[in-house]
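Changelog-adjacent note: as of this version, every example in the card shows the full chain rather than a window. The one below runs 108 residues end to end.
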Amino acid sequence: MANNTGQKFGGRKKGTANKNTLEIRRKFQTLVENNLEVLQADLDKLKPVERVKIIIELGKFVLPTLKAIEVQTDIKQPKRPQFVFMRKPEQKTLDISPEQKIKTRFKM
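Full-length structure tokens:
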């Protein structure tokens, strides 16, 4: 009879590692650790391009895989640069003769 309730009865709990997977990972780690010198010698014999490809492939076993994330924004219109042109206020100058300057300075 099928379980139509959506509840899980048995099996591993969420987040619990598979025992077989853990055992295989430990054995693989031991294999690599015991053969580091041989692996290095084999890598040294390869061309640089091949060496980089293999190191990247081996890195997949050690480094977590990154996932792309989607970013949602509320911007509806594309942002455009805004330019504000401003002029300096014009300074009014008086054309007066040097004699008038003296008169205004000393109020004669």
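Structural remarks: The radius of gyration is 39 Å.
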